[in-house]
Amino acid sequence: MTEIWTRIASDQALILGFVAVGAIMGAAQLLSRGLTRGRIHGSAIAILGALALAWLGGELTGGKKGLADVPGLAGLTLLGGAMLRDFAIVATAFEVDTAEARKAGWAGVIALALGTLVPFVLGVGVAWGFGYRDAVSLTTLGAGTVTYIVGPVTGAALGASSPVIALSIATGVFKAVLVMTATPFVARFIGLDNPRSAMLFGGLMGTVSGVSGGLAATDERLVPYGALTATFHTGIGCLVCPSVLFLAVRALM
Amino acid sequence: MPIFGTALLALCTVLGVALGEILGAVLHVKANVGGVGLAMLLLLAARQALARRGWLRPGLRLGIEFWAFLYIPIVVAMAAQQNVRAALSGGPMVLIAGLGAVTLCFALVALLGRLMKERADD
User: Could you report the predicted ipTM of this complex, rounded to two decimals?
Assistant: First the structure.
């Protein structure tokens, strides 16, 4: 019996991933209707539940890939990996209203600039408050506050120490998780209900996983607009953090 | 046929990601610069070109829309494999920096959104 199960778990990994995600979404749909009478979106509950399960998976296995480290659920890494995620995000663009996207173009650029600068300055300030004084560590920790990819890329480029790089990744992942969970609850208060504000949101928040998860939980029609700007965020961060912003931090030290 | 839609989507994705890689190399950045965004723009251009020739058949659309519908389940799978434990155990510096950045950016979304609305109303 166990032999059959291990073989299925490895040979049918992606298929088991579909079953697992279907089960999570089904349970979320029931909770949404039963407990909140549809007030909290089923997808929001599904994403929150998936994050909770990811935490549980990490606690149970001690691994780094959340629920995907649980035997039989390794297929989640392929199903929820960057390849299929980006493929599906591009597919959502098919419904984009090009006139709306063009109208928000310039604001998207401003949002991207602020979305890099504001978290960076804040991250550097917090790191300063925790006693870091060298420009390399400060820049790396600031970059981690931009996204969890910008942090390690910047740290590697500047030669930061490995604990500092690990902290910068943790900050970025925490930010992504926070954006995913908080967005549906604050959406109403920040006016996140139209394509233009979704493009602003994508540029300011940056983290593609946070933006795509947060918008999916809020209103899936907004996803392509947010993704359109968010996708430039990591690249811009990796461009300016180890160069211009590092020089600025060093000059201030 | 749906496969033509899926193949078109795949072609746009690969071309966009490749452009993002080239842009990254040109700018000396160790990351993909806007690959997914460029792929989205390519798909929009392809949609317009197909619509003009009357080739935007339901079958072809289905091959693309199926993947757009799978988007949320894919995001759920992505959420399920995050290293949430590490994110929560990073200590107070991680929590303060993350919370501060997200709160500030939420406020900026509200502020810029309002400014844009006023401009549009003028």
Answer: 0.88
